[in-house]
Amino acid sequence: MQSRTSLSSWQNLVNAGKHMKTQHMSELFKENPQRFEQFSIKLEPFLLDYSKNIISQQTMTELINLAKECQVESWREKMFAGERINATENRAVLHVALRNRSQKPISLDGENISDDVQKALNKMKDFSDKVRQGHWKGYSGKRITDVVSIGVGGSNLGPQMVTEALKPYSDNSINVHYVSNVDGTQIANTLRPLNPEKTLFIVSSKTFTTTETMTNAKTAMRWLVASSFDESAIAKHFVAVSSNNQNATEFGIAQENIFDMWDWVGGRFSLWSAIGLPIAIDLGFEQFIELLEGAHEIDNHFCEAPLEQNAPVILALLSIWNCTFLGAQSQAILPYDQSLHMLSAYLQQAEMESNGKSVNWQGESIDYPTVPSIWGELGINGQHAFYQYLHQSNNIVPADFIGSVESVTPVKGHHETLMANFFAQTQALMQGVDEAQVREDLKAKGRTAEYIDKVAPHKVHKGNRPTNTILMKRISPRSIGSLIALYEHKIFTQGIILQICSFDQWGVELGKGLANNIQAQLAQNTISAEHDSSTQGLMQFYQSGKKS
Ligand code: G6Q
Fold first, then answer.
1. 213 CB under 6 A from ligand 1?
2. Exactly one of 384, 445, 458, 546 is catalytic; which is it?
C-alpha cells in the first residue's frame, strides 16, 4: 500500500515542519493582523479559533492538499453511503444515520435503515414518556424515581458525559445514576440509598457479553429479587439496550423490554442510539431530539463545507500537523465549563480507542507518528495543578480550550473570572515571556541584580504552545450534540489521513481474554505455570493474602 509519506503534500509538510519550528507565533501575530480572521471558523453553535497554532497560510494550504490527496471527501461519502468502511469487522459505520433529521434516506445494503431508526426512536419516546410521567410502575405499583444505567466504555461514557453536561436542562423528576465499574464499591454505593420498588435498571451492552456489565446487572437483579421475593418483578425493573437479543433474553430481560442497536453503530459512537435512553429519561425525549439535531447540523457542515472551512477537517489536520510533523505526543482537552467535566474522559476514549493503532488498512506497520494520547481536566482546576507543565516543560502539549459565552447557571461575577482565565491562558501559552522581559519586570519591582540573575531563567516562558479555542454560545442539548459530532468527524478524518482502521478496537479484546482465563484460576485457587513470573508472583501474593 502506498504510504502516506510518499505523497507530495506529505513531503512538503515535512519541509514546512522544519521551517515552522523556527517560527514563533507571537511574531506571526505581529506580522499579520488578520490572523484571527484568517484562521477561525464561525458556525452556528460555536466559534473555532485555530490561529494560535504554529501555522502559516502555506501550511494550511499543504494540509488541505494532504486531505485532498488522501481523498477525505470520497471516504466521507463512503461512510454516509453505508459502505463497509470498518474493514476488519466488515461493518458499515452509520452513527450518522441515528441523527439523520433530514428526509433523505440512508441505506445499507440497498435497504433504507431510516425506518428502523425511527421505530427505535418511537420506542424510546414511548418508554421515556411513560417513566417520566409515572405511568411505568414498579412491582408494588409505585412510580419510578431512580434509573440506574449499567454499562461500560462506549455504553457508559457518552450517555454519562451528556447527562452531566445537561444537568441544568433536567427537571429532576427522575434521578439518573451510572454504574460502570465492576468494583463492587460503585454499585453498592449507588444502590444503598435507593428503594428497589422505585428503581429501574437499564443494562446497556451492545454485545451483552461484557463481564463487568453482566456482573453488575446480576448484582442489581439479586438486589431487586431480594426485595420483591418474586422474579416476575424483573420485567418491571429491567430493560436492556443491546444488539444481542438472544443473550439479553437469556439473561432474563423481557423481550418487549429490549431496545435494539445495530452492528453498524460502534460502542463509542452510540450515544445517539437507545444507549442514550438514560439521557431521554433524564431530559425528556424532545431534548434528546435536540441533541440529535445539533449533531445533524455538524453532519451537514462536514458534508457540505469546503475543506478549508470545514471545522472537523481543520481540527484533524491540525492534530496531524502538531503530532506527526511537529512532534507533539499528547493533547490536552481543557473545558472551562463545569458542565463539561467529563468531556476529556469521553474524548480520550473516542480518539484513543479509534486511532491509537500502529498498522495501516493493509495491516502494515505505520512508519510515522499517529495520534497523541488525550488527557485533560476542567481548565480552572488544571491551572492550579498541571498547567505548570503546559507552560514550561520541555514537552509541547497542544490543547483544545472549550468555553461558553453564556453560563447556563449564572452566578454574579463568576463567569467573567472564569472566562478571563480562559482567554489569558491561550494568550500566555502562545506569547510566553522572554528573558529580557522577565528581567525588566523584576527590575521594575525593585529586585536586586543578584536576585534577578538567580530567578530570571526560571521565570522565562518560551510560549509558542499551540491551542485551539472552541467558544460555544451556550451549553444546550443542541450545542452539545454539535460539539460531540465535531470531534467524531475529526477522529474519522484523522483515521483516513493516517490510514488507520478507526472503528475496530482489537486492543481492548486481548486483556478481556486473559482476564477470563485468570478469573477461572482465581476461582479455583490455582495459578497456571504458563504465566510469566511476575503474573504468577502477583497472583500468589493476592491468593495468600485472601486466605489469611
Ligand atoms: C467502544 C468499545 C468499548 C465497548 C465496551 C462495552 O467502542 O467497543 O468501549 O463499548 O467494551 O461493550 P458492550 O457495550 O458490548 O458491553
1. yes
2. 384
Q: Verify whether ligand 1 is closer than 6 Å to residue 154 (CB atom).
A: yes
Which of 150, 243, 501, 508 best tests ligand 1's pocket when mutated (most atoms within 8 Å of CB)? 508
Q: How far does residue 518's CA lie from ligand 1's centre (Å)?
A: 21
**Residues whose CB falls within 8 Å of the CB of residue 223, separated by 6 or more in sequence, listed in order:** 191, 196
Task: Mention every residue, 6+ apart, whose C-beta is less than 8 A from residue 413.
Answer: none
Contacts 24+ apart (CB under 8 A), 542-547: none
Measured by CA distance, the residue closest to atom 9 of ligand 1 is 153
Among residues 316, 268, 353, 308, which one has the least CA distance to residue 498?
316
Ligand 1 close to Cβ of residue 242 (< 6 A): no
Is the C-beta atom of 190 inside 6 A of ligand 1?
A: no
Q: Pick the closest to residue 462 from 393, 540, 545, 537 (CA basis).
A: 393
The reported pLDDT for the residue numbered 547 is 60
What b/e string do you get for 213-245 counting C-beta neighbours within 10 Å, with b at 16 or more?
bbebbebbbebbbebbeeeebbebbbbbbbbbe
| Cα gap 15→20, rounded to integer Å | 9
State which ligand 1 atom lies nearest to the alpha carbon of 275: 14
Best residue among 155, 253, 265, 491 to mutate for probing ligand 1's pocket (most ligand atoms within 8 Å of CB) is 155
Kindly state the cell numbers that stand for 105: 434516506
Judge whether 353 counts as a catalytic residue. yes
Q: In the chain, helix, strand, coil percent, each to 5?
A: 55, 10, 30
- Check if 212 is active-site: no
Cβ pair 275, 151 in contact under 8 A: yes
Reduced to 3 states (helix: H, G, I; strand: E, B; else coil), residue 463 is coil
Mind listing the pLDDT tens digit for each residue in 47-67? Answer: 999 999 999 999 999 999 999
Alpha-carbon distances of 101 from 126, 177, 291, 462, rounded to whole Å: 19, 29, 11, 47
Residues 87-97 have pLDDT tens digits of 999 999 999 99
CA–CA dist 224, 356 (Å, integer)? 40
Q: Is 207 in the pocket of ligand 1 (CB under 6 A)?
A: yes
Q: Number of C-alpha atoms within 13 angstroms, CB side, residue 265?
A: 27
For this structure, is 512 an active site residue?
Answer: yes
Q: Which tens digit of pLDDT belongs to each residue from 115-165?
A: 999 999 999 999 999 999 999 999 999 999 999 999 999 999 999 999 999
Residue 236 CB–ligand 1 contact under 6 Å = no
Q: DSSP secondary-structure letter at 143?
A: B
CA distance 490 to 492: 5
